[in-house]
Specification:
With 275 residues, the chain is an alpha/beta fold. It is built from seven helices and eleven strands. The strands form two sheets. Strands 1-2-3-4-5-6 form a six-stranded mixed sheet. A five-stranded mixed sheet has the order 7-8-9-10-11, with no helix packed on it. The two termini are 20 Å apart.
Protein backbone atom coordinates (compact mmCIF):
# COMPACT_ATOMS: atom_id res chain seq x y z
CA UNK A 1 0.00 0.00 0.00
CA UNK A 2 1.17 3.57 -0.61
CA UNK A 3 2.60 5.60 2.23
CA UNK A 4 2.85 9.32 2.85
CA UNK A 5 0.09 11.91 3.05
CA UNK A 6 -3.39 10.87 2.02
CA UNK A 7 -4.30 12.64 -1.24
CA UNK A 8 -7.65 14.45 -1.06
CA UNK A 9 -10.70 13.04 -2.74
CA UNK A 10 -11.77 14.92 -5.86
CA UNK A 11 -14.66 17.30 -5.15
CA UNK A 12 -18.17 15.91 -5.56
CA UNK A 13 -21.58 17.62 -5.75
CA UNK A 14 -23.17 18.60 -2.44
CA UNK A 15 -26.44 17.00 -3.49
CA UNK A 16 -27.23 13.91 -5.48
CA UNK A 17 -30.38 12.51 -7.02
CA UNK A 18 -31.82 10.46 -9.85
CA UNK A 19 -30.31 11.43 -13.18
CA UNK A 20 -28.80 10.17 -16.40
CA UNK A 21 -25.06 10.00 -15.76
CA UNK A 22 -23.69 8.66 -19.05
CA UNK A 23 -25.09 7.74 -22.43
CA UNK A 24 -25.77 4.20 -21.17
CA UNK A 25 -26.24 4.63 -17.41
CA UNK A 26 -29.10 6.20 -15.48
CA UNK A 27 -29.27 6.37 -11.68
CA UNK A 28 -32.60 6.00 -9.89
CA UNK A 29 -31.99 7.04 -6.28
CA UNK A 30 -33.85 5.03 -3.64
CA UNK A 31 -35.61 7.00 -0.88
CA UNK A 32 -33.50 5.51 1.92
CA UNK A 33 -30.98 8.21 2.93
CA UNK A 34 -29.07 7.69 6.15
CA UNK A 35 -25.73 7.63 7.92
CA UNK A 36 -24.72 4.41 6.18
CA UNK A 37 -26.58 4.89 2.88
CA UNK A 38 -25.57 8.53 2.30
CA UNK A 39 -28.06 10.08 -0.17
CA UNK A 40 -29.71 6.66 -0.60
CA UNK A 41 -29.02 3.55 -2.65
CA UNK A 42 -28.18 4.06 -6.31
CA UNK A 43 -30.14 1.69 -8.54
CA UNK A 44 -28.50 1.69 -11.96
CA UNK A 45 -30.42 1.20 -15.21
CA UNK A 46 -28.15 0.43 -18.16
CA UNK A 47 -29.13 0.28 -21.81
CA UNK A 48 -27.31 0.44 -25.12
CA UNK A 49 -28.60 3.47 -27.07
CA UNK A 50 -31.58 2.46 -29.17
CA UNK A 51 -31.76 -1.05 -27.72
CA UNK A 52 -34.94 -2.73 -26.51
CA UNK A 53 -33.55 -4.33 -23.33
CA UNK A 54 -32.16 -2.91 -20.08
CA UNK A 55 -30.04 -4.16 -17.22
CA UNK A 56 -30.99 -3.18 -13.67
CA UNK A 57 -28.24 -3.28 -11.04
CA UNK A 58 -29.20 -3.28 -7.34
CA UNK A 59 -32.99 -2.80 -7.32
CA UNK A 60 -32.64 -1.58 -3.74
CA UNK A 61 -35.14 -1.64 -0.87
CA UNK A 62 -38.61 -3.09 -1.18
CA UNK A 63 -40.24 0.28 -1.77
CA UNK A 64 -43.09 0.14 -4.32
CA UNK A 65 -42.73 3.73 -5.50
CA UNK A 66 -38.99 3.31 -6.04
CA UNK A 67 -39.47 0.07 -7.94
CA UNK A 68 -42.10 1.74 -10.12
CA UNK A 69 -39.57 4.46 -11.00
CA UNK A 70 -36.91 1.86 -11.77
CA UNK A 71 -39.27 -0.10 -13.96
CA UNK A 72 -40.37 3.06 -15.79
CA UNK A 73 -36.75 3.96 -16.57
CA UNK A 74 -35.90 0.41 -17.62
CA UNK A 75 -38.93 0.08 -19.91
CA UNK A 76 -38.90 3.55 -21.48
CA UNK A 77 -39.23 3.67 -25.26
CA UNK A 78 -40.87 0.20 -25.30
CA UNK A 79 -37.82 -1.50 -23.79
CA UNK A 80 -38.04 -4.29 -21.24
CA UNK A 81 -35.85 -5.54 -18.40
CA UNK A 82 -33.52 -8.22 -19.72
CA UNK A 83 -31.33 -8.84 -16.67
CA UNK A 84 -31.13 -7.97 -12.95
CA UNK A 85 -27.72 -7.96 -11.24
CA UNK A 86 -26.54 -7.46 -7.65
CA UNK A 87 -23.27 -6.00 -6.40
CA UNK A 88 -23.80 -7.71 -3.00
CA UNK A 89 -26.59 -8.94 -0.76
CA UNK A 90 -26.99 -6.13 1.79
CA UNK A 91 -30.68 -5.29 2.11
CA UNK A 92 -30.39 -1.69 0.92
CA UNK A 93 -29.21 -3.08 -2.44
CA UNK A 94 -30.87 -6.48 -2.64
CA UNK A 95 -34.08 -6.54 -0.59
CA UNK A 96 -36.27 -6.02 -3.67
CA UNK A 97 -34.18 -8.09 -6.07
CA UNK A 98 -36.19 -11.30 -6.17
CA UNK A 99 -39.55 -9.53 -6.33
CA UNK A 100 -38.38 -7.08 -8.98
CA UNK A 101 -36.87 -9.82 -11.14
CA UNK A 102 -40.02 -11.93 -10.88
CA UNK A 103 -42.24 -8.97 -11.71
CA UNK A 104 -40.04 -8.09 -14.68
CA UNK A 105 -39.68 -11.65 -15.93
CA UNK A 106 -35.90 -11.18 -16.02
CA UNK A 107 -33.16 -13.46 -14.69
CA UNK A 108 -31.45 -12.40 -11.46
CA UNK A 109 -27.73 -13.02 -11.14
CA UNK A 110 -25.36 -12.51 -8.21
CA UNK A 111 -22.21 -13.96 -6.63
CA UNK A 112 -24.02 -15.24 -3.54
CA UNK A 113 -27.51 -16.72 -3.60
CA UNK A 114 -30.37 -14.31 -2.99
CA UNK A 115 -33.22 -16.76 -3.24
CA UNK A 116 -32.69 -20.08 -4.96
CA UNK A 117 -30.43 -20.40 -7.97
CA UNK A 118 -29.01 -16.90 -8.33
CA UNK A 119 -25.39 -17.39 -7.22
CA UNK A 120 -24.01 -17.89 -10.71
CA UNK A 121 -21.59 -15.01 -11.40
CA UNK A 122 -17.85 -15.60 -11.59
CA UNK A 123 -14.88 -13.34 -12.15
CA UNK A 124 -14.38 -12.48 -15.81
CA UNK A 125 -17.87 -13.49 -16.90
CA UNK A 126 -19.30 -11.39 -19.69
CA UNK A 127 -22.98 -10.64 -19.30
CA UNK A 128 -25.27 -8.40 -21.24
CA UNK A 129 -28.45 -7.78 -23.16
CA UNK A 130 -29.39 -5.76 -26.22
CA UNK A 131 -25.82 -5.18 -27.32
CA UNK A 132 -24.67 -3.84 -23.95
CA UNK A 133 -21.87 -5.89 -22.40
CA UNK A 134 -20.58 -5.96 -18.83
CA UNK A 135 -17.56 -7.78 -17.42
CA UNK A 136 -17.78 -9.24 -13.92
CA UNK A 137 -14.95 -8.06 -11.64
CA UNK A 138 -15.13 -9.79 -8.27
CA UNK A 139 -14.14 -7.28 -5.57
CA UNK A 140 -14.64 -8.93 -2.17
CA UNK A 141 -13.79 -7.16 1.06
CA UNK A 142 -16.72 -4.91 1.96
CA UNK A 143 -18.59 -8.23 1.97
CA UNK A 144 -17.46 -11.65 0.81
CA UNK A 145 -19.82 -11.50 -2.17
CA UNK A 146 -19.06 -7.95 -3.34
CA UNK A 147 -18.70 -7.67 -7.10
CA UNK A 148 -18.22 -4.80 -9.54
CA UNK A 149 -19.31 -4.56 -13.15
CA UNK A 150 -17.10 -3.09 -15.84
CA UNK A 151 -18.89 -1.27 -18.65
CA UNK A 152 -16.14 -1.29 -21.32
CA UNK A 153 -18.02 0.97 -23.74
CA UNK A 154 -17.70 3.82 -21.23
CA UNK A 155 -14.62 2.72 -19.23
CA UNK A 156 -16.93 2.86 -16.19
CA UNK A 157 -17.00 0.55 -13.18
CA UNK A 158 -20.15 0.00 -11.13
CA UNK A 159 -18.69 -0.65 -7.69
CA UNK A 160 -21.60 -1.14 -5.27
CA UNK A 161 -20.18 -0.37 -1.82
CA UNK A 162 -16.55 -1.18 -2.66
CA UNK A 163 -15.98 2.45 -3.67
CA UNK A 164 -18.49 5.10 -2.58
CA UNK A 165 -19.37 8.46 -4.06
CA UNK A 166 -18.62 10.18 -0.74
CA UNK A 167 -16.03 9.23 1.86
CA UNK A 168 -14.84 5.66 2.29
CA UNK A 169 -16.62 2.37 2.90
CA UNK A 170 -16.91 -0.03 5.81
CA UNK A 171 -15.25 -3.43 5.77
CA UNK A 172 -18.21 -5.25 7.26
CA UNK A 173 -16.41 -7.76 9.52
CA UNK A 174 -16.72 -10.74 9.86
CA UNK A 175 -18.24 -11.21 6.40
CA UNK A 176 -15.99 -8.45 5.11
CA UNK A 177 -12.24 -8.95 5.30
CA UNK A 178 -9.47 -6.38 4.98
CA UNK A 179 -6.90 -8.41 3.05
CA UNK A 180 -9.49 -9.13 0.37
CA UNK A 181 -10.63 -5.50 0.37
CA UNK A 182 -7.12 -4.14 -0.12
CA UNK A 183 -6.54 -6.61 -2.94
CA UNK A 184 -9.80 -5.46 -4.54
CA UNK A 185 -8.72 -1.81 -4.32
CA UNK A 186 -5.37 -2.68 -5.87
CA UNK A 187 -7.16 -4.51 -8.66
CA UNK A 188 -9.38 -1.52 -9.43
CA UNK A 189 -6.34 0.77 -9.28
CA UNK A 190 -4.64 -1.44 -11.86
CA UNK A 191 -7.70 -1.15 -14.11
CA UNK A 192 -7.45 2.61 -13.72
CA UNK A 193 -3.76 2.45 -14.63
CA UNK A 194 -4.46 0.62 -17.88
CA UNK A 195 -7.25 3.00 -18.84
CA UNK A 196 -9.87 0.25 -18.60
CA UNK A 197 -11.57 2.26 -15.82
CA UNK A 198 -11.81 6.04 -15.75
CA UNK A 199 -15.23 6.58 -14.16
CA UNK A 200 -16.80 5.04 -11.04
CA UNK A 201 -20.57 4.58 -10.77
CA UNK A 202 -20.96 3.79 -7.04
CA UNK A 203 -23.73 2.22 -4.99
CA UNK A 204 -24.15 5.39 -2.91
CA UNK A 205 -23.39 9.03 -3.61
CA UNK A 206 -22.35 10.88 -6.77
CA UNK A 207 -20.53 9.34 -9.70
CA UNK A 208 -16.74 9.80 -9.71
CA UNK A 209 -15.28 10.84 -13.09
CA UNK A 210 -11.67 10.70 -11.82
CA UNK A 211 -11.48 7.05 -10.77
CA UNK A 212 -7.68 6.97 -10.52
CA UNK A 213 -7.57 9.83 -8.00
CA UNK A 214 -10.27 8.18 -5.89
CA UNK A 215 -8.37 4.89 -5.78
CA UNK A 216 -5.17 6.64 -4.74
CA UNK A 217 -7.09 8.23 -1.88
CA UNK A 218 -8.72 4.96 -0.84
CA UNK A 219 -5.43 3.05 -0.71
CA UNK A 220 -3.58 5.80 1.14
CA UNK A 221 -6.47 6.23 3.57
CA UNK A 222 -6.43 2.52 4.42
CA UNK A 223 -2.67 2.59 5.01
CA UNK A 224 -3.07 5.61 7.29
CA UNK A 225 -5.86 3.98 9.29
CA UNK A 226 -3.80 0.81 9.79
CA UNK A 227 -0.90 2.89 11.06
CA UNK A 228 -3.23 4.68 13.47
CA UNK A 229 -4.60 1.37 14.75
CA UNK A 230 -1.05 0.11 15.37
CA UNK A 231 -0.27 3.24 17.39
CA UNK A 232 -3.50 2.97 19.39
CA UNK A 233 -2.83 -0.67 20.29
CA UNK A 234 0.77 0.13 21.23
CA UNK A 235 -0.55 2.91 23.49
CA UNK A 236 -2.79 0.47 25.36
CA UNK A 237 -6.09 0.21 23.47
CA UNK A 238 -7.25 -3.36 23.95
CA UNK A 239 -10.79 -3.63 22.63
CA UNK A 240 -12.19 -2.59 19.24
CA UNK A 241 -14.26 0.11 20.94
CA UNK A 242 -11.17 1.54 22.65
CA UNK A 243 -9.44 1.67 19.26
CA UNK A 244 -12.47 3.41 17.74
CA UNK A 245 -12.42 6.02 20.49
CA UNK A 246 -8.83 6.90 19.55
CA UNK A 247 -8.64 6.37 15.80
CA UNK A 248 -12.14 7.49 14.86
CA UNK A 249 -12.50 10.29 17.38
CA UNK A 250 -12.89 12.73 14.47
CA UNK A 251 -15.97 11.04 12.99
CA UNK A 252 -19.56 11.34 14.27
CA UNK A 253 -20.53 8.91 17.01
CA UNK A 254 -23.46 7.83 14.83
CA UNK A 255 -21.02 5.87 12.67
CA UNK A 256 -18.91 4.41 15.49
CA UNK A 257 -20.75 1.11 15.27
CA UNK A 258 -19.76 0.78 11.62
CA UNK A 259 -16.25 2.00 12.46
CA UNK A 260 -15.97 -0.79 15.03
CA UNK A 261 -16.64 -3.35 12.28
CA UNK A 262 -13.77 -1.88 10.28
CA UNK A 263 -11.53 -1.89 13.37
CA UNK A 264 -12.26 -5.55 13.97
CA UNK A 265 -11.23 -6.20 10.36
CA UNK A 266 -8.09 -4.11 10.83
CA UNK A 267 -7.11 -5.93 14.03
CA UNK A 268 -7.64 -9.31 12.36
CA UNK A 269 -5.49 -8.15 9.44
CA UNK A 270 -2.67 -7.01 11.74
CA UNK A 271 -2.86 -10.18 13.83
CA UNK A 272 -2.50 -12.32 10.71
CA UNK A 273 0.69 -10.45 9.85
CA UNK A 274 2.29 -11.08 13.23
CA UNK A 275 1.91 -14.86 13.07
Amino acid sequence: MPGGPVPPLPPVPATWGSRRVTERAECILAPNPGVMTLDGTNTWVLREPGAGMSIVIDPGPLDPAHLDRVRAAATAEDAHVGLVLLTHDHADHAEAAVAFAERSGAPLRAVRAVGAGHDDLSDGDRVGVGGLELVVVTTPGHTADSVSFLLPAETALLTGDTVLGRGTTVVAWPDGELTAYLESLERIAELCGTGAVTHVLPGHGPDLPDAAAVLRHYLAHRAERLAQVRVAVAAGARTPREVVEVVYADVPRAVWGAAELSVRAQLAYLEDRTR
